[in-house]
């Protein structure tokens, strides 16, 4: 007898983790009933947001309609925002158009991403590219209208969970804007400043990478403000514990925390507000409930990244373990930690790799830039 026959699986989210989860679930369990719950059936392809300011990508490129994929995989779509989870994970509360309804399941995979901490006073003066296409378009439009001034870029962390940080895209944006202004022949009208509370920003990428990044900033006349905690942003400046400096445009990636709906769910929270999970992606202490991607907090090395690549690896494991649970077998599949980042600079890129055994950074190379574009094409082709 088929162990997944008529089983109902809910997947929360429509991002990287959710898409891989539904693909894996359908591949191995043709007869399972899958419901995807998300505010919109659209995947935002975040890695290419860094190309929006230079007009290499548009809204249509970034926002990928999942309806054809959902139809192909026979996945039901439940529109709405999850506001809570009840009954030990078996009931998801969804709000849509002001009405809250319950979606019951036999298995649950959570992939609703992270949220960004907005506690820093004056945060409204900064644009956070992590918020998606609207923010990326605002950066594009501001750059187009600015005739000069200081552009300050930085990222923060979650003091309660150091792993809840995302620096890579900010380095990409920094070097991308530098390159764009040079291509436009107006770099000399701008001052670029990179700021970070750490003296060694991006150290999760590896020591050699930090050296490379700092040397590159020096080479391209990008000033640094390092080693001082941010105190506040103002309309035209940044104030840190050590100093203050002018900024006509502030681009900032705050530290991350977990989903807001977690306050209305029985799941354990990590110190930083993520859903606490095992190395199997199972939510600690909950049967047939898994969390993948940026929503979760896992036993991990201190350099563990929050990346789409990791969300994909976790989703594969979550789908397999959920199926094992249905079959009454041990759900003990785990995933390996890997950091793979093709750090783009608009017309060239470096690749940064790290796992338990090795770490390296390649020299900058034009081919890697095209490799990043090729990967985007390959990834999205399978979804569209
Ligand atoms: C600018 C930028 C560049 C990046 N570049 C790279 C890169 O080059 N390589 C890489 O590997 N990673 C990159 N990342 C990181 C990567 O995008 C994330 O790690 C990845 O998106 C996490 O996947 P996820 O499935 O956990 O969450 P997400 O992709 O964020 O998806 C979350 C989903 O949940 C939905 N959701 C949110 N709240 C609710 C709710 N209450 N109810 C229902 N649904 C909800 C959202 O609408 C969304 O569909 C980048 C990120 C940014 C911001």
Provide a descriptive summary of the structure in words:
Helix 1 (16-28) packs parallel to helix 7 (308-326). The chain has helices spanning 16-28, 59-62, 67-72, 133-145, 168-183, 207-219, 308-326, 366-381; strands spanning 8-12, 33-38, 42-44, 63-65, 75-79, 81-86, 91-96, 99-104, 107-110, 115-116, 126-127, 149-155, 190-196, 222-226, 230-234, 237-240, 244-246, 249-253, 256-257, 275-276, 289-291, 296-297, 339-344, 349-354, 359-361. The protein has a five-stranded parallel sheet. It has a five-stranded parallel sheet with strand order 11-18-12-13-14. It has eight helices and 25 strands. The chain is globular and about 65 Å long. The chain has two domains: 8-114 and 258-326, FAD/NAD(P)-binding domain (3-Layer(bba) Sandwich); 118-256, FAD/NAD(P)-binding domain, CATH 3.50.50.60. The chain has 384 residues and is an alpha/beta fold. The mean pLDDT is 96. The longest helix has 19 residues, at 308-326. The structure holds flavin-adenine dinucleotide (FAD). Flavin-adenine dinucleotide is lined by residues 12-18, 37-39, 46-47, 49-50, 81-82, 111-113, 129-130, 166, 169, 259, 261, 293-295, 306-309, 311.
